[in-house]
Every structure is written in C-alpha cells, then in structure tokens.
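Weekly puzzle thread! Below is a chain. First person to post its structure in token form gets bragging rights.
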Amino acid sequence: MIGRKKETVYLTRCLESDQAEFLVLYGRRRVGKTYLIKEYFNNRFSFYATGVASTKTHEQLAYFRDSLVEYGGSSDRSCSSWREAFSILKDILSDKMIYRDPATGKRVVFLDELPWMDTPRSDFKSALDHFWNSFASAQKDLLLIVCGSATSWIIRNILADHGGFYNRVTKQIHLQPFTLSECEEYYRSRSISLGREDILESYMVFGGIPFYLSMYDRRLSLAQNIDALLFDQSGQLYYEYDRLFQSLFRNAKKHLALMKSLSKKCSGMTRVDLIADTGIADGDLLTRALEELEQSGFIRKYRNYVKKKSGFYYQIIDPFSLFCIRFLNDRKFNSWLKYIRTPSYNTWRGYAFELVCMCHIDKIKSVLGISGVESMVYAWRSKAKKGGAQIDLLIDREDHVINLCEIKYSETPFSIDADYRKNLENKLHVFADETGTKKALHLTMICAGGLEHNQHSEIVQNEICGEELF
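Winning reply:
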C-alpha cells in the first residue's frame, strides 16, 4: 500500500487495544478511505455493509439486510427498521463462531458510506447511537469503523454531536490526499515513467487523489491522459466535477456557485466579496455551505494577519476543482493540447502551483528547518489602495521570525530583475509599516524551477525549489 504509514500504525493500535474502539474515518471523496480499510484488513470483517447513494430508507434497509444474511443473520427475520437491523447485528456479533482478527481476536465491524444510510426520517442515527451505547461500547474485543465521504455529515452528526455520540468516538482518522512524494511512489509502483516536472503538473490537475491517479494510462503522455480522461466525452472523469458535488451535498447549487466565484481570485475572497459576487444572501445557509466546503477539503478558511479574529478569507485548495472550473465548465477548446501555452494555461499554472504549496505547508516548514517551531499560517493584504501589497502565504513563528512567501511557477530558474526587486522591497516595507511587527522578516521564494542567483536575489533569505516539495 502506497503511503498511509501513519494510518496503518493507527489501525494496528486500534486492533491491539484492550477496550472497545469506535473509529471514525473521513476525508474527501475518492481519497481512498474504503481502499485503506479493505486493504489493511484484507477484506475480512466480522461484519461489513455500505450505504448506497440516492436511495430511500426501505432500499437502504434491504441492502443492509443482505449484508446481515451474508454474515450469518437469518433470512426469515424482519428488518423493517434500523432498530431491528442493529438488533440482528448484535446477535450476529454475539455468535461464538463469528470471524475474528487472527492476531488479536478482535471483532471488526465496518460501516462504509454511513451518511447515505441516514435518509430523512429513518431514525438511523438514533439506532446506531443505541447499538454503540447499549452493546458495542461494553465489548472490549470489538472495533467499530464508520466511514463517509460526506465529511460535513460525519463532523456534524458524529464527531461534533452533542447527543448520544458526545465523547463516544475513541479514535478518528482524517485521510488526506497523497503528497507529491506519495504520487511519485505510486507512479513508480505502476511502472509509469514521469519526471518530477510532469508529476508536479499532474498534481496541479488531479491533486493527490488516488482514484484519479489509478486511471493513468502509462502508454500515453500526461497531456494525452488529461485529454482522454477529462476532455473526451467518454472519458472516465468527463462528468466527475458535477457528480462529485451532487454526491456530497443534497443541494449543491450554492456550493458550485461559491466554488466558481472563488476560482476567479487566487488570493481568496472575504465573505462580503462572495455575497456580492454570487448573489447568495448572507445568513445560515451561506455559513453552512462554506463550512461544508471547508470540511470536505475543497476550500480553506484563511486568517488575515492583522484581523486574526474576524478577517477571514476563503480560498480554493483542491487542484482538481480549480482545473475543472477553469477549463471544463466552459470548454473553450475540446482538447487539453489546444490549451497548452495559451495565456489562460500560463495563468492557471501560476495559481495551481500556489495550491500545491498550500497543500504542502508541512513540507515547506521542514525544508526551512522549522518543523519543531510553533507557527501559524496567515494571509495579508495592505489597507493602502495605492502602493499597497499582498502576501498570500506568511508563516508567523514563535522564534520571532515571519517568513513572507512569494510563490512563482516557472520551468526554468526564476530571475529577480530590478523592477521585481523593488516590488519585493515594497512588500516588506508596507507589511512592516502597517502591521507594526517587531519580528524579523525573512523573504522566502518558492519557485517551481528554482531561483536564479544574481545581484538582485540577495534580498531573499530562503529559497525552495519544486524538487524540495517532494
């Protein structure tokens, strides 16, 4: 299994635990949650069932009943409610012949796509609550794993629940997309020949989503793969963007409108900006949609360095979403090869590389040698309308240093000329003047193709090239 080393260690601890464990696994759709659990346990469970998208309560129960029968339940027993379904599951797990993990003797129950089971007025949640609190929590040799792609549902109904699940979850894993180094490892494992420049660009298109990477045809170039998967009407990802949002959110119109709006501004937008641009009214519905997008890993909530409590920006951090909005929603051309080297392509690469950096903050801190230093990540915009400045990424450190990061995409080493040096000096001056900070300011250049050293590059304290993000 590629990557997932921390997650497998965590699963082993759950198995070896001497108490009942309730593990919640969540993360962006297509990130490999089901694959991780099935691969780790070699598809062998004491009980396994999965929710089914867009089905009614009686259909969900019918599928669940099929699983109950498969794992030893009687086909004659009624299963017309979730209370009855979990009662049957309790009996199955109490059978002395039930399958157990060979090494630990643990009974492992895996409920996949849990949010889909919770159909309107089904009482699913209360039945699961009763199953755990009245039976499962007292079974020291039981591991219950629940999983779902609708991250906002998982957080709201399980992790942040103030009712029956309050403080009941014993473990949780938020599964993240692959990093660049894990993508490289994955491609190598499949004998796909890609240089790091192409791996970086593939990340800018597909993100680190294993499901998308699994579709790569090693007989084709990266550009040909993008064409075949995303631009060809028969391609496997041709309709993926809309289907992705429709599967996660019951009313995805607002979410899609917010994503489209956010795609226009690489530095992010405030709530006021979003209201003005989308026409969505201020209120609970907007708050809920933004929270759901953030929890699902599509956007991030960015603090303004000066207004740390109220000055939030919202910014897309999912490369795949950005690519689809920029190139697939309107489909100016019917082939990716026609976009390459156009102005829109070059603009996208600059923005997309920024997203790659945002997804690798921990790696950036490691390269800077500050992994062990407490720090916060912010954005900052000048108040001045003329002669102002903007910094999209700054790392405010407890050792009295602030890294002001400039992110540039170029295939060759980026060269700082006299004009650009003046621009950088202005940023440093305006930031220091407006914020009044007493900390040392370290200008940090993050350049995909590296930084060319000349008489103007001496202004830079730290430099990071694209290779070092791997």
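Puzzle host: Confirmed. Bonus trivia for everyone else. The mean pLDDT is 93.
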